[in-house]
Amino acid sequence: MNKVVKQQPKAIIVGGSLGGLFAACMLERHGWDVEIFERTPEALSGRGAGIVTHPELFEALTAAGVLVDDGIGVRVDTRVTLARDGAVVSERAMPQTLTAWGKMYDVLRKAFSGSYRTGAVVTDVDSRADHAEIALADGAVHRADLVIAADGFRSGVRQRLLPAASLEYAGYIAWRGLVDEARVSAATHAAIFDKFAFCLPPSEQILGYPVAGDDNRTAPGQRRYNFVWYRATREHDQLPDLLTDATGKVWHHGIPPGLIRPEVLAEMESAAAELLAPQFTEIVCKAAQPLFQPIFDLTVSRMAFGRVALLGDAAFVARPHCGMGVTKAAGDAIALVRALAGHATVEAALAAYGVERVQVGQAVVEHARHLGAYMQAQLKSEQDRVMAERYRTPEAVMRETAVSRRF
Predict the structure, then answer these.
(1) Could you count the other beta carbons within 10 Å of the beta carbon of residue 6?
(2) Strand partners for 292
């Protein structure tokens, strides 16, 4: 009797960032042939800044085949909030490991042994009765049993499947930057470098923590300090001005850091000196290449479309305050692989995955929206005003930024 050989299932992943890599590694470990199509032509390894970790993220890394050890990030034991004069307002013990986007990308990229194609722009996606397929800008069509859209918060796949789903500007931006440990003064280093630190000017928030340095080095003296500074910014006039380069071009989808006008950077440094604790003023002013990102909310009503699934920021975009972006994408990957193992068909698996993860995504977005309410330029509802007051205190900010198990 001839033995029937079961054909290896194939998955195509659109987007080769962290969410896509989590899904790729987990599927590969469950017997899938996986191919990633990433639109960016160059390597992604140099991108991103700090990432707040949660236990779920480490569980997902293990599920993806990554060895989690002390080199995965930088450990801090304390959270502290500083007053405008630099004095400690609040302090509490809260052990946590902080990592960096580059470190996550590096370990996941090494764990994935399948095909990773760069410069591959996906122009269409379709789900058929017996397969799913994508079309590329060069005219090529690729088929698989499953297509996963992990192409980020401006997902082209989502736009095709859910054209009515759109990003909603939250009313503020986040300035981000990194400073080499060697450039930090002794006084500032002693006050905040080995801590997760906060400062809370009126209607604003800045936080900072240590992350790996060049080549993902985590030894003392070779690390960096990462800051995120949330600032209320009006959509109709202030935001377009910030997004305008020296030639007058407006970068509506986000301005490249190197094109931010010198006067915008000068105003940012001036505001830091006026509003922030001196330790944070130093960090902001010493950042080599600050950048800013408009903050958005995005929710979707569904994440499964036959043999096509949305994952990570392609589905739900949550404000960064609860540090759940990467963890949420990793959770999506775990749920997707679990559903595929527990259902007879891809369609049934994706339908179950969608029901579960839509609920999670909505909860994360809503919680992050509450945390960020007091930084909005305008509070749109009574609920926003209540939440703004609830999360304005130092203790609330330090506590809630670490919560993730509820999701």
Answers:
(1) 6
(2) 175
Task: Please write the tens of the pLDDT for every residue from 67-95.
Answer: 998 888 999 999 999 999 999 999 999 99
Nearest to 206 by CA among 231, 234, 185, 233: 231
Q: In what order do the strands lie in the sheet with 122-127?
A: 122-127, 132-136, 141-144
- Bridge-based pairing of strands 10-14 and 146-149 is parallel
pLDDT at 405: 45
Strand ranges in 181-288 using DSSP code E only, listed in sequence order? 196-199, 205-211, 224-232
Decide: 118 and 35 in contact? Cβ < 8 Å: no
What number is the average pLDDT over the span 101-115?
93
Question: 258 vs 49, 81, 304, CA distance in Å?
Answer: 16, 31, 38
Residue in the block written with tokens 């003392």: 220
Residue whose entry in the numeric block shows the structure tokens 């407006």: 250
Q: Which of 108, 110, 80, 276 is nearest to 177 (CA)?
A: 276
End-to-end CA distance of the chain: 50
Is the pLDDT at 392 greater than 90? The verdict is no
How do 141-144 and 132-136 pair as beta strands? antiparallel
* b/e per residue 379-401 (b: at least 16 CB within 10 A): eeeeebeebbeebbebeebbebb
Please state, rounded to an integer, the average pLDDT across all residues of the chain: 90
Structure-token pair, residue 87: 């004095």
Please tell me the predicted confidence (pLDDT) of residue 271.
97
Tell me how far CA of residue 122 lies from CA of 10, 371, 405, in angstroms: 18, 35, 35
At 7-50, the pLDDT tens digits run 899 999 999 999 999 999 999 999 999 999 999 887 665 555 78
For residue 263, the model assigns a pLDDT of: 97
Residue 102: the pLDDT is: 87
Provide the residue count of the chain.
Answer: 407
